[in-house]
């Protein structure tokens, strides 16, 4: 008789991870907690966590409800528009992680309130110079 071995844990599908990351990103941009989104959907916040991690796949009807709650079309969770990270790894993943963090959200909200395009460009140049100096050090 062959001994049973535990199979390696199943990795989430990259599309499910991308959809989850986009849900988390949009939820954070709107300042909505997992609990609030969950209550709107009639599910637990733990289920929202699983969706956001890509552990659980989001069904079509649930994705429609999430898109309505987050005020975006369902296609938003699949688009890989310019400047939006895909979840295949590398630098794009790092950028998406930062943008979805509390610091990234605060920075983006503050930056968006700057109306003068020249000032915004100068801030971008300053940040690039600081980052380049940090890498060179």
Describe this structure in words.
It contains seven helices and no strands. With 137 residues, the chain is mostly helical. It has a domain at 14-100: 434 Repressor (Amino-terminal Domain) (Orthogonal Bundle), CATH 1.10.260. It starts with 13 loop residues before the first helix and ends with a helix. Mean pLDDT is 84; it is low at 81-88.
- Provide the gyration radius in Å: 19 Å
SS content category: mainly alpha
Give the distance, in angstroms, between the N- and C-terminal Cα atoms: 61 Å
Query: What global shape is seen?
Result: globular
Spans with pLDDT under 50 lasting ≥5 residues?
81-88
Helix content: 55-70%
CATH architecture of the domain at 14-100: Orthogonal Bundle
Could you name the CATH homologous superfamily of the domain at 14-100?
lambda repressor-like DNA-binding domains
Order of helices and strands: HHHHHHH
Give the integer mean of the pLDDT values: 84
Number of helices: 7
Features:
mainly alpha; 434 Repressor (Amino-terminal Domain); globular; 137 residues
